């Protein structure tokens, strides 16, 4: 969930596990990295795919808002530490902080919380598949909000195909039996929130002159502050701290939010945003595999078939006319 992330000027859809932090500027090209980008690409897919499993395990002991708050705390700690090591500063302009406050809500606090609530009643496999619909929502919203993003027949066909895949995943022909409608709706709303957040970032945080790391650290810090205010009002302190749930929250934040941003940011710089954002299409595969084999979640034939259709539609929406 998550970003996260590619440059906002050319960003695609983040995954839920992605940090989903704003990256609207192009920083200097990095030095050659020791680990091949293909290995880091696969590692990122694993991290984000397993994020849905971590959410499921964490919500067994903690309230959804508490899971999200812990995730944000550890994710922010990673980015702020790296920011300090690199001797970079947080943004200074008040206008930038105002936009980051909105971006933190749309790209972090809201979708992270919705996915956590969704997984109280739906399996992590379904949550991972719902996350793959973000490019479909992005396509629909960009037609209205971004004048430079005009639809083509192929991209519109991708939207139609993608949502046909969603109906397949949910088993529409049998009345959506076996799926909790509220939990599924929350997961889809979370995916739509990512799309809205990315469009907001592209319109408001482009060309700020700040580094991607600086903006992302500030955004996660603001998201943490938002959740720190809200969580005590709607939850009670946990009665126990099972080690599996605690470690899941730590992994969700430090790996799935903090480290994942740094890995994808490096991929954007080295391999380009198009390659970097293709990891989105591997996330539901990893999430489904982890849910079935590690959590014992049941999988019917229509879910993987529908997921493939969703991903095909999402891929079509990312095509551009010559």
Automatic annotation (TrEMBL):
Pfam families in UniProt: EamA (PF00892)
Transmembrane portions of the chain: 41-59, 65-85, 97-118, 124-144, 156-176, 182-201, 213-235, 241-263, 275-295
Sorted UniProt keywords: Membrane, Transmembrane, Transmembrane helix
Signal peptide residue numbers: none
Low complexity: bias regions: 1-24
Domain EamA: 41-170, 183-317
Keyword Membrane included in the entry's annotation: yes
Cell compartment(s), UniProt: Membrane
Family of this protein: Belongs to the EamA transporter family.
Species: Streptomyces silvisoli
Principal cellular location given in the protein's record: membrane
Protein's recorded name: DMT family transporter
């Amino acid at each position: 969930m998550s970003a996260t992330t590619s440059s906002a000027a050319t960003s695609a859809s983040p995954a839920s596990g992605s940090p989903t932090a704003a990256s609207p500027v192009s920083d200097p090209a990095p030095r050659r990295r020791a680990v091949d980008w293909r290995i880091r690409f696969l590692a990122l897919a694993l991290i984000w795919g397993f994020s849905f499993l971590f959410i499921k395990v964490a919500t067994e002991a903690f309230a959804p808002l508490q899971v999200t708050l812990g995730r944000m705390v550890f994710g922010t700690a990673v980015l702020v530490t790296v920011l300090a090591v690199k001797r970079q500063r947080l943004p200074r302009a008040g206008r930038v902080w105002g936009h980051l406050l909105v971006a933190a809500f749309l790209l972090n606090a809201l979708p992270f919380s919705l996915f956590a609530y969704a997984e109280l009643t739906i399996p992590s496999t379904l949550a991972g598949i719902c996350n793959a619909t973000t490019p479909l929502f992005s396509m629909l919203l960009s037609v209205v909000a971004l004048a430079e993003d005009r639809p083509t027949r192929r991209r519109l066909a991708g939207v139609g195909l993608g949502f046909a895949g969603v109906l397949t995943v949910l088993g529409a022909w049998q009345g959506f039996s076996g799926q909790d409608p509220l939990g599924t709706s929350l997961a889809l709303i979370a995916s739509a929130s990512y799309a809205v957040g990315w469009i907001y970032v592209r319109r408001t945080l482009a060309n700020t002159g700040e580094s991607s790391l600086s903006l992302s650290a500030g955004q996660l810090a603001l998201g943490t502050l938002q959740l720190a205010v809200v969580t005590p009002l709607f939850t009670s302190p946990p009665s126990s701290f099972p080690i599996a749930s605690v470690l899941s929250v730590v992994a969700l934040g430090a790996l799935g939010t903090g480290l994942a941003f740094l890995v994808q940011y490096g991929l954007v710089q080295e391999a380009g945003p198009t390659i970097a954002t293709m990891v989105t299409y591997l996330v539901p595969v990893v999430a489904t595999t982890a849910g079935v084999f590690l959590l014992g979640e049941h999988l019917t034939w229509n879910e993987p078939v529908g997921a493939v259709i969703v991903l095909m539609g999402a891929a079509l929406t990312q095509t551009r006319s010559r």
